[in-house]
Structures are given as C-alpha cells and as structure tokens.
Amino acid sequence: MSGAGLPIRAGLRGRTPYGAPQPDVPVRLNTNENPYPPPDEVAAAIEKALGAAVRDLNRYPDRDALALREDLARYLGHGRTAAHVWAANGSNEIQQQLLQVFGGPGRRALGFPPAYSMHPLLAAGTATAWLDGRRSPGFTLGPESAAAQVAEHRPDVVFLCSPNNPTGTALPLAVVEAVLAVAPGIVIVDEAYAEFARPGTASALSLLDGHERLVVTRTMSKAFGFAGGRVGYLAGSPKVVGAVQLVRLPYHLSVLTQAAARAALAHAPALLGTVEAIKAQRDRLVATLTAYGLAVAPSDANFVLFGQFADGPAAWRALLDRGVLVRDVGLPGWLRVTAGTAAETDAFLAALTGVLREQPWTGPGQPDREEYA
Ligand SMILES: *Cc1c(COP(=O)(O)O)cnc(C)c1O
User: What is the spatial distance between Cα 313 and Cα 316, in angstroms, rounded to a whole number?
Assistant: First the structure.
C-alpha cells in the first residue's frame, strides 16, 4: 500500500503501484520486451539524430510532433496521415490522455479481463469508474457476448486488447465491429502486439474509416524494440486527435524522444527484422508446451500463457530458482512467458521440465495427474 496516512483521494487509497518483481536473473522473460538491441546501423543513425537534436536543447520541441506523426502514419499505411495519428510517451500515456478526455469523474470504462492490467489502473488514475466484463471459457470473447455486455452497461469507454495481454490471442474483427455497433462512447483497441499476429489477423486499423469513435493504440515498445525510448501512438479520426490535444501537456514529447523515434522509424524494416525470429520462438513455445500436455492459449503476440499449475506462485518461484523469470499475471494456475532468443527459450524449456516434475499441474494432454504419476 502506498501513501498511508496521506489525504489521498478515495479512488486511489490503498492501491499498489503497477509493477512486478524484477529480480536480476540470467533469463528475463517477464515483460514482453524484444530481446534484441537495435542493430548497429540503426543505433548509429539514432546516435547521429540525437547528436543533432542536442544542439537544439535550448528550444522546446515541436508541441504537435508533426514530423513524427507523419512518419508513424506512413508506417501504418491504411491511408492514415498525420491528422489521424497522435503520439506520446508510450501507449500508456496515449490511453491516459484518452481517459482524461473521454472518461473522468462520473464516467465509466469497461474492459474484458484477463486483459492489460494497466487499463483499470489508468481508469483509477483519471477517476474513471471501471467495469469488468466477462469472457467465455478458454478466455474467448465472441461478438454477441461483447456487444451484449456493452449494450447492457453503456460505458463511456470500451477497452479491447488485440492481441490480448496476457492471453496472447487476437480478437476477431467481428468483435470490434459488434462493439462499435452498440457502444455509446469511445472504443479503444489496444494493438500493442499487432506486428506479431499470425498471418491473416486483421487490424482494427481497417475499420477506422467510417467509425470516428474508434481509436487504435500502438506502440514502439514491443516489435520495434524501443521500449526504453517510450513512444506510443494512436490512429483515430482527426476529431479524436484534436480532442486529446485538450489534455496533453505542452511539449510532452521531448526533442530527444522525437529525434530518436524518427531515426528509428527511418529504419523500420531493420528494426522489425527481429519479429520473424521472435514469432518462431513463440510458435516453438506453443508447440512444445502443448506437447508437454499443458494448456496453452493461442498466441498472436510475443508471449505465451500456459498452465495450469495447482500453485501458480510456487511454479513461478521454482522457475526463478532455476534462473528464469516469467510473469505471474494473477490468473490462478497460469503463467506468462515472453518469447525471447532461441537460447532463452532453451533455458526456459529446460527449467520448465524440471518444474513440471516437482509442481502439481493439469492440462488437456495430462488431465489426470494421479494416473500420470
Ligand atoms: C506492453 C503493452 C503496452 C505498451 O505500453 P507502452 O506504454 O507503449 O510501453 C500497451 N498495451 C499492452 C497491452 C501492452 O502489453
């Protein structure tokens, strides 16, 4: 608990800050980072851009980050222009700005857990009431169910997450369309992992024309391997882009951030060159864990959710004791592992086989542990 004894407002009192344990271990597969640092030629280009930007540090940056937004729009395609795109310090800040404008006191946001744990925290931070929607067994969410829940609660903001964190599975576009048809407010589709989706997975970007209350959020933190650079963005109608400017802090994106991000985007193919290798490790994790007999959620992301352990925290600790850090996302019996390098996958699988011998678990390939033992 933070701030005990301080006059913190009711919506925040007794809460704990976002975060997960970060012990220093050899294999860190807990925050869905890209394991590859920028290639040398991209690092050199970013250094050069930063060197030039440093000479301008006496001046405020471009408040509207117009050149960066043009670059991001060009990367997105789908007919987007700078007028459809807004950028900030991570997609977390983008979503906070959206809640500041479209949520706030007296308003409500709805999400479908298990989903990104920051969504309800951002709601709390902006005094937006939070509603938990329901998923079907297997963490699925169908168009009828999603639309019925949105129609019932009529939230001001709906959060969809596709591919979803922590399950990894992308939503069918039909879910987004069904929600848009009944949502009275803004519909945010968090596509932080879009670049890792399996072939044939459609992005909600394709629905933007004709839906001015749809907002797609993206980030450079995952596929671009730019988590430390802190750049996220949205694609939406020009009206939405205008609206978030009501709440953005002046000069929120520093000269250095804008310069580094533009240099990175100029080398997008080189930076995204790691995506296929990461997807291969992701698919290897899904196949191997399934072959072990575990339950595994289908993944369109750079991580895999697997279970079920009788005691998830104990299994998490047993992996950590073997030098491998994964994430306990608070779903009883399930753990989430990031797809890293081939060597990291090797280390994780070696540790896991040891853990599976020690820790009780069940899965579709091994439904009756008693019999197996
Ligand atoms: C990692 C992640 C983000 C990224 O947040 P940034 O602020 O852009 O680093 C956004 N949404 C989801 C679902 C994520 O898992």
Answer: 5
